[in-house]
Amino acid sequence: MPDKPPPARVVFLGGLGRSGTTLLERLLGEVPGVAPLGEVVHLWARGVLADEPCGCRRPFSACPFWREVGERAFGGWPDDLAHRMLRLRRRVDRTRCVPELARRLAGSPARAGSTGPATSAVSAGSSGRAERPGLARPVTPSEAVRSAEFAESPELAEYAAAHRRLYDAAAEVSGRPVVVDSSKHASTAFCLAAAGLDVRVVHVVRDPRAVAHSWRRRVPRPEDGRPMTRWSPARTSLHWLAQNLSLELLARGGARVTRVRYEDLLDAPAAVLGRLAVEAGLAPRLDFLSVGRADLSPAHTVSGNPVRFTVGPIGLDPDDGWRTAAPARHRRLVATLTWPLMIKYGYDRRPA
């Protein structure tokens, strides 16, 4: 009987949308041994139910990779499983759940002995068929929760166990030991960590003024042409603070968190990607990089910005158009609302 493959090594990209997580995922996906999965948190609604295209441009239901992952992890992708996962998400994976998840994480035996924040920063200068969760059999302790403390939250256990099965199946099907989930949401990272999953979190930050400008732009969804959500600068500032403060709290709870600035990724991609590859236990083979560009191959990613469909050369030039395109009053407002974290992350709050 063949040995069971080792569990996937999971890299979770966290941060507010429009901060560069999709680009970082695509670049990491070119490192040998890495399988980029896209925003797994949206797989159930946008992939299973809406049948939106995979990054390979096939409909989700027609993508050979995801069909095989579904068979191995859950015996397929039935709608009732997708609806169950969406209900679980509404129950346990929301920003308002972060305080309770942080309490659970702090009390987890897996974090016992942690002496403080586990945050590091990557800068330009540093360098058979399985049963369905909740449908065919109960979640086993080895798949999710290993502490009686979490027995009070079977929904969290079930939610995390489904992610574990999906990650392991994706690693097995791709033949790559490391999977990247760019779901972004701090609450999702908290769910995985609080339920005992071994996950490395990459906290992606970007100048909030650039993020606010991006959220104001009219951008069509590549899947159907409908406009993507737009936010005001004030609303973006509040979301930027909420997500980044939550990820800071995650690190203080003992989770392994590495911070990456989007600007540093563009300035010195080899240094940033090399460090992340080593942290994931991989050799930093970066021959897909050249001066100011990267060459991308097709990827099986679900959900994310249009970059997930890009194949071939992509520019890695500094993205500073917001400095002149964003109205000065908007830049001032965002800096006023976010300045404490701006300074912490090395951004100059003076007028851009």
From TrEMBL:
SUPFAM superfamilies registered for this protein in UniProt: P-loop containing nucleoside triphosphate hydrolases
Sequence segments annotated as region (Disordered): 108-147
Source taxon at top rank: Bacteria
Biased composition (Polar residues): 116-126
Pfam families attached to this UniProt entry: Sulfotransfer_3 (PF13469)
Protein name as annotated: Sulfotransferase family protein
